[in-house]
Amino acid sequence: MTYFDHNATTPTDDRVLEAMLPFLKSFYANPSSLYRHGRIARSAVDAAREQIAALVDAQASQVIFTSGGTESNNLALATLPSQGRLAISAIEHPSVTEPALRLERLGARLNIINVDANGLITQDAIDKIIKEKPELVSIILANNETGVIQNLAPYAGKLRANGIRVHTDAVQALGKIPVSFNQLGVHLMSLSSHKIYGPKGCGALVFEKGVEIKPFLLGGGQEQELRAGTENVAAIVGFGKAAELAKAGLAEYSAKLLALRELLEEGLTTIPGLTIFARQANRLPNTVQFGIPEIDGEMLLMKLDQKGIAVSSGSACASGGSIPSPVLIAMGVEAGFAKSAIRISLGLANTPAEILEFIDLLKALVCQA
Ligand SMILES: Cc1ncc(COP(=O)(O)O)c(C=O)c1O
To answer: 0.85 cut: is pTM over it?
Structure first.
């Protein structure tokens, strides 16, 4: 299979798996246990916390482990005071939009921050939202579909100066571009392991000291009493290793991915009518989302699957058909055209040969259609 869907998930790096195995086979003790093997498991969790903190330029004590990006986003949004006002961007992942909508049903007020045609939040949109006086604002750092990277630091600075708490979903940015919790100036940041060649079901919430987190899970007092439950030690160790590898390889990885993306875009632009969404914006080095008039994205996905190529379409399945991507709709893309969207998200094992083959195949499929 040619795997072009790394924003959905990544393969687990062999070095990550190797780091995890001892904690499944030998050092399986509970990190809360006081005897030696328990202390070994505890040290491994602490070391992983340091590795993740180092990748995002934060203190280890600011990192709590969760079950993934979804839980981290849910926890971050739950810091909203009851009946408070929340603002989220129009291009958030469902793990932000769904809890936001639930908070609204429970009495919170919800504002949406619009984006321009390139998927970017503007200074005007930030100024407008400040006037609404929200307690919490959530802005995705890099979008999972288009790859668009927000110019977050100055916006976070302004929001903070107005007494507004800022959360960012940095799940897709992590490991692809430099992510500094301190430089971004946010209060809360969500991370996920399986997007950076770590195991699934593990993530972290990074938080500024003083922000009151309301735990969902109460019990044994783990994770500073903010997230109870016996730690998933092997997965946490794997996440830590993946973070260490991402930090060491970041410059090399992003240069490699960008070169592949440029080759892909060069080929894509030879297809008549093809549009690369948000092409003018600063995007993740591995992500390209495009549409081709009169071509259904899901049909194309299936045809590519038959040829052994895994990509993602921009639409979500719904009873009675597919619904176009809310991200593209927010960017002003016409609904019919949004349904043609295909996302390619490249990874470290992809090669130029795979990209050239893909372009040839795509041209042939588009001609047949
Ligand atoms: C931007 C973004 N946020 C959050 C998530 C959820 O992360 P997880 O799969 O670890 O729950 C994803 C996963 O697709 C994502 O792309």
So the answer is: yes
